[in-house]
Amino acid sequence: MCRNIKTLFNFDPPATDDEIRAASLQFVRKLSGFQAPSRANEAAFSSAVDEITACAHRLLESLSTSAAPRDRDAFASKARERARVRYSRE
């Protein structure tokens, strides 16, 4: 799994369109091996991002859970703390 793709389900507030598109872009980059496609591949790359974004929207809208929504700020602060511990120089 690409480290830049974040969990988007069951957050309060819900994932934005931009967050879903960013995750889709990262997924296509990972699959294709391209950070940015050549002109010859640009249409296929862009089309794939659009299709995966649409699929991701449908997926997130169709999922259900009985768990309480996760707090986005608390989740982010835990991730920052893990990163601080992981990358701190002692």
UniProtKB/TrEMBL annotation:
Pfam family, any one: DUF2277
Q: Where is this region: Disordered?
A: 71-90
List, alphabetically, the InterPro entries matched: DUF2277
Question: Which domain of life, per UniProt?
Answer: Bacteria
The name this protein carries in UniProt is DUF2277 domain-containing protein
User: What species is given as this protein's source?
Assistant: Vulgatibacter incomptus
Q: What is the lineage of its organism?
A: Bacteria, Pseudomonadati, Myxococcota, Myxococcia, Myxococcales
